[in-house]
Specification:
Blueprint lengths: L12 E10 L8 E11 L4 E5 L6 H8 L7 E6 L2 E2 L4 H10 E4 L3 H4 L6 H11 L6 H11 L18 H13 L5 E5 L7 H18 L2 E6 L2 H7 L2 E6 L2 E7 H6 L4 H8 L32 H4 L2 H4 L3 H6 L12 E2 L2 H7 L2
Helix pairs in contact: 4-5, 4-6, 5-6, 6-7
Length: 334
Amino acid sequence: MTDDGTPSPPPLLSARDLHVAFPGRRGGPPLRAVDGVHLDIRPGEIVALVGESGCGKTTLARALLGLVRPTRGQVVFAGRPLEYGSRALKTYRRRAQLVLQDPSGSLNPRHTVYEAVAEGLRIHRHGGDEREAVARALSRAGLRPPERFFLRHPHELSGGQRQRVVIAGALALDPELLVADEPVASLDASARGEILALLLRLRTELGLAALVVTHDLGLAWNIADRVAVMYLGRVVETGPVEDVLTAPRHPYTQALLSVLPEAPGAPVVLTGEPPDPTHIPSGCRFQARCPVLAGGEAARAGVADRCRTEEPAVLEGGGRAQVACHWAGARVAP
């Protein structure tokens, strides 16, 4: 349900109990990069997927685009399960486009801007006027007048302009969904703000949905409708961005928020590193680093044993606020 009580639109893209595992080294246990994820993205909605490096965010994003095949579970787009034949994937990738972190690495230095934007049109055999489609995409990405950029090469552009060219290449195919993996991580502060404003404008003007993968909760606050916080292959907290970021319930989300410059109180410094995804611990996967468990708060709430032995349930993919934490559940229990 939406805030005014009307039914929510059906998801454009859904992950259903998604698992992605890679073979372990020398025949060892598999690496469980994505370990049971439900996630929905609705038409025109921006969802931020947040977590530390190595938590599985990029693998999940690639699986949602069909670039990595799930070990178990299902990706559903526009009500239909994703098929992995070459023709089906080619059709899907017209509708769901990837925007990568590093525009310099995404663009061939020998190609002009025109060639970079036209590449997808040529791969998918766009039937219309190619020059007009390239110009329209560049204009939508904020590079105006577009003809002024046709013959330029990447080294002649600023970092923000290069990222706009990458976005224009995605927009040329008129997609319904963008998956942006750390889209502003390599940019300076002013360019970051411009690209975020562009993504918001594209949502408003074109109805584009977006999954924005980031380690930066501040970015999520500025751009997202909903946020999903990921730890060691699983979403541990999700919900409307205002709910999650103003009143975080999971100790991991609280720690991530505490290091933002505007956060009240002292930063929460997590000890140690995330566990090896080939040996995910029993019980709560955050237990080895959890300040609530280490500080005795979980014991006082009567859930310390559950934290060590009982894995929290996998969260649903819907829009309501949810948390996978025994201690957070005990705090709101009657």
